[in-house]
Design a protein that fits this description.
By secondary structure, the protein is mainly beta. It has no helices and eleven strands. Strands 2, 4, 5, 6, 9, 10 and 11 form a seven-stranded mixed β-sheet that branches. The chain has a four-stranded antiparallel β-sheet with strand order 1-3-8-7, with no helix packed on it.
Amino acid sequence: QVQLVESGGGLVQPGGSLRLSCAASGMFFSLHHMGWYRQAPGNERELVAKISMGGRSNYADSVKGRFTISRDNAKKTVYLQMNSLKPEDTAVYYCNAHYTDDYWGQGTQVTVSS
């Protein structure tokens, strides 16, 4: 059974940083593309960043230069380093694993507020 467990969310002031982690189990992690999505109240879920099996990364325009996605295949974990956070980054952040199917974590809340 595939499980994705996110951690690292919380409350941070504008300009601050957070690092999200997503630990995977029950899957061949290195054979999956991994991604982070977010959903704010009243909005659709949107892609934040993704990283391929080979380590190639892509970012939403809104987070380029501020967020960095990385993966550690040995630890079966994907990370999202978020710097220079803005109030509009407030959302529930979800981890995604994709190969032939899509798997999702339960989400972790990120709130950026003074």
